[in-house]
Structures are given as C-alpha cells and as structure tokens.
Amino acid sequence: QVQLVESGGGLVQPGGSLRLSCAASGISERIIGMAWYRQAPGKQRELVAAQPTGGSPNYGDSVKGRFTISRDNAKPAVYLQMNSLKPEDTAVYYCNALLKRTTYWGQGTQVTVSS
After folding, report:
1. What is residue 89's three-state secondary structure?
2. Cα(54)–Cα(66) distance, rounded to whole angstroms?
3. Which of 13, 20, 57, 107 has a CA that sits 20 to 30 A from residue 35's CA?
C-alpha cells in the first residue's frame, strides 16, 4: 500500500516563499530518485526538480536558482523549498518516487502565487 502524501501548498504573494513536503510510505523497494513536477492549467506536466539517490539534484530551467529540492532517505520524504515565487509558478505540484520498474505519484497540492 504505497502512498505519497503531500502538504504545504497554499496561497502566497509574488516574491514569497513556500515549502512543500511529501512523505512516502509502504515502499519496500529501493528508491532510485524522488522528484517534484507541476502542471498549470492548459499546460503539460513539467519537471520542477529531481533528486536521484546518491546523485546531484537537477532543476527545470524556470526554477533554477529559486527552488531547492532535498530528501530524507530515512523516512523517506522529499521537500521543495520555493523562494522568490512568481505568478507563473502557480500550478498543481506533484511529488513522485522512481523505482526500478514503477513510479509512484502523490495526489498533488495546489500552489497559487498572486497578489
């Protein structure tokens, strides 16, 4: 019974910060990596940030320098610190866990950046 539970979404003003959390449970296999994706209305899902296990993080071009991904391998959990938020960051944010043959997704959390 694998479950990824996201939290931390909400409404924030432009230039503000928000920290998303995603706690995973029920995963018995090795996690190859964990990541955050987002999907805005009318747009395709896009990679925000990914943290491979034992590797360096990578970020989508639109968030480089503003967002930071981190992981707690023991829980396991993945976090996304979002700074200098822009209205174009408004989207549903999804966390995922990549396994050898399966990818698990969270249900998504809404992030709205507006004044």
Report:
1. helix
2. 22
3. 13
Given a contact cutoff of 8 angstroms between Cβ atoms, the answer to whether 9 and 21 are in contact is: no
> Are 39 and 91 in contact, with CB atoms under 8 Å apart?
yes
- Nearest residue to 95 (alpha-carbon basis) of 17, 1, 4: 4
The per-residue pLDDT for range 84-105, each reduced to its tens digit, is 999 999 999 999 999 999 999 9
- Residue 115 parent element (H or E): none
> 62: exposed, middle or buried (C-beta count within 10 Å: 0-12, 13-18, 19+)?
middle
Indicate if the alpha-carbon torsion angle 41, 22, 114, 86 is positive or negative.
negative
**87 torsion bin: left (phi>0), alpha (psi -120 to 50), beta (else):** alpha
